[in-house]
Specification:
Blueprint lengths: L1 H19 L3 H4 L3 E3 L5 E3 L12 E11 L4 E6 L4 E6 L5 E3 L16 E7 L4 E7 L3 E7 L2 E5 L3 E4 L2 E4 L5 E4 L2 E3 L9 E7 L2 E9 L1 E7 L8 E4 L3 E4 L5 E5 L1 E9 L2 E9 L4 E5 L10 E9 L4 E4 L2 E2 L6 E4 L1 E8 L6 E7 L3 E7 L18 H6 E2 L6 H4 E11 L4 E4 L2 E5 L2 E6 L1 E8 L6 E7 L6 E4 L10 E2 L33 E2 L4 E3 L34
Parallel strand pairs: 6-8, 13-16, 17-23, 23-39, 24-30, 29-41, 32-38
Antiparallel strand pairs: 1-2, 3-4, 3-7, 4-5, 7-8, 9-15, 10-11, 11-12, 13-14, 15-16, 17-20, 18-19, 18-21, 21-22, 24-27, 25-26, 25-28, 28-29, 31-40, 32-35, 33-34, 33-36, 36-37
Length: about 525
């Protein structure tokens, strides 16, 4: 018995020596003898777990779990390379905690250690130096001198920044203002942008009775209905409300990324015009009030047709105010209060805190400034691809090649052709006194990109006059901020709110507090 124990102990000692390399054979690994019997170094080494000879900070382009590989992009050199991992590769989060390779996602900024010759990944860690902004809505990627802003902060935006959408690399120009982003970087430099929520398209069919009216898509888009318009809408499910001169309807739609929805509103019944009497209470009482671009006298109730109306208020010494109301009852009272002017501050006080309706609602607040922002005499030319429909901020511009008046700010250019994938780009126009020409890539062919199997497209041989109209954008701003569109309905006057008409406005008990709303959005937007 004692002999067996001794033998077992001897075996354990020998194994320990072999494992730790404390043997004459282990010490001679990588060594050889020449003909003279001298020992020479062959350069061969045995890699141990965690050993490496190279390190890098890079952006993850993709993780291939079938081939156990990670493709990375070095932002300084603009070089893409692939490393291979195995069960010995350390995977850590930015706090040095353990994680799995499946938790590493494209767009992550990581620190990697590896054996260069073998392309063997020793360790990968979410870089502790990197910052991340998730679900960003308040951004502008068109700053001067290749900069971008996220909320109030400004960052450099290199030309080779990694932009990913649906797992594929794309360009900054492919991002439109409705997209929801995740942005990563180090210090004041953006490394990667992920499109978390993209956009699709909405087209109306049989909408003649609604031309000049209004369309509201959820709480994300509200704008005037124009002929042959094509709306860019964030992907998701929505209720669409359409109205014009008392005619209205509500439809449900699902918008998929890069797909087009055709909404047939031919079943809309056009009733006799119904009107409501609206009493407006405005502070200060010296304010000028315009409804649908028409100055009104608010000393008496204002009669408005049922539907959505734009209210614009301005007074000397006060910030102007633009609101949208929906009239749906015979009588109601609404109050507005203008804020006294103060030194202009940056409205973007926080990162990714504004809701979609806040972000988009500001877009139309500057529409009255178009004349100031336009570059007199300069034009934008769309040369390629040829024979495609061109839309600017949803408005039809003609069949390419086409041109239109240059207006400073950011604009969404949408290209469409039957049988091809619709594509949108964001362009940034500056007051530089020069014309500018864009030549975009050819559209990709598609199997089917139109929801409901209804394709209400125009033929490339359209007989429509190829006009060069002034750029009729919903709104523009000067400087580096993106253009804005109208905010959601701020006051909804429904039948439930109908009250017995008082003899005088002061006797009405239905007064609303300034800034309150029964509709989709109650936050005031000051111009």
């Amino acid at each position: 018995m004692h002999g067996r124990i001794s033998q077992a102990a001897a075996v354990i000692v020998v194994l320990a020596l072999l494992i730790t390399g404390c043997t004459s054979q282990a010490s001679s690994i990588g060594m050889a003898k020449d003909k003279a019997g001298k020992v020479v170094d062959t350069g061969f080494t045995v890699s141990t777990v965690g050993s490496y000879d190279s390190a890098d900070t890079a952006v993850v382009m993709s993780v291939d779990q079938q081939n156990n590989s990670v493709t990375l992009m070095n932002m300084d050199a603009g070089r893409q390379y692939t490393l291979y991992y195995d069960g010995t590769t350390y995977v850590k989060d930015k706090y040095n905690g353990p994680m799995t390779i499946s938790q590493v996602r494209a767009g992550d900024v990581v620190d990697v250690n590896f054996l260069k010759g073998k392309r063997q990944l020793a360790s990968i860690q979410l870089s502790p130096k990197a910052w991340v902004y998730d679900n960003v809505e308040n951004y502008d990627l068109g700053g001067i001198n290749k900069t971008a802003s996220i909320g109030p902060n400004t960052y450099s935006l290199p030309e080779d920044v990694v932009v990913l959408s649906d797992g594929k690399r794309t360009e900054v120009m492919d991002i439109v203002t409705q997209d929801l982003l995740s942005i990563r970087g180090i210090d004041h430099k953006i490394y990667s942008i992920n499109v978390e929520k993209g956009h699709g398209y909405l087209r109306l069919k049989n909408d003649q009775a609604l031309i000049g009216g209004w369309i509201e898509v959820g709480n994300t888009v509200i704008r005037e209905i124009t002929e042959d318009m094509l709306l860019v809408v964030p992907e998701g499910s929505y209720q669409v409300f359409l109205s014009n001169n008392g005619a209205s309807c509500t439809k449900d739609i699902i918008v998929e990324r890069d797909k087009e929805v055709v909404l047939d509103v031919g079943d809309l019944e056009v009733p006799q015009d119904k009107t409501g009497r609206i009493v407006l209470s405005v502070t200060p009482d010296t304010a000028t009030v315009k409804i649908d671009n028409r100055t009104v006298d608010i000393s008496n109730p204002v009669e408005l047709t049922y539907g959505i109306h734009q209210v614009y208020l301005e007074a000397e010494g006060y910030d102007s105010l633009r609101k949208y109301i929906q009239v749906g009852s015979e009588y109601a009272k609404i109050s507005f209060k203008l804020e006294e002017k103060k030194q202009k501050e940056d409205d973007n006080s926080s990162i990714s805190q504004n809701s979609i309706e806040d972000k988009e609602s500001e877009k139309d607040d500057n529409s009255s400034d178009d004349a100031l922002n336009s570059t007199s005499g300069n034009k934008v030319y769309i040369d390629a691809p040829k024979n495609v429909e061109v839309y600017v901020d949803g408005n039809y511009r003609g069949i390419s090649p086409v041109s239109f008046k240059k207006v400073t700010g950011s604009h969404t250019v949408t290209l469409r052709k039957s049988g091809y994938k619709t594509k949108s780009y964001t362009i940034y126009l500056y007051n530089d006194g020069e014309d500018i020409t864009y030549s975009f890539s050819d559209l990709e062919k598609e199997d089917s990109s139109v929801s409901n199997n209804k394709n209400n497209s125009k033929s490339e041989n359209s007989t429509r006059e190829d006009e060069e109209p002034d750029l009729d954008v919903v709104g523009t701003v000067s400087g580096n901020n993106p253009i804005k569109v109208p905010d959601p309905i701020d006051e909804v006057i429904t039948d439930e709110e109908e009250t017995k008409e008082p003899e005088t406005p002061e006797e009405s008990g239905s007064e609303k507090e300034p800034g309150t709303s029964d509709g989709a959005g109650s936050e005031e937007q000051n111009d």
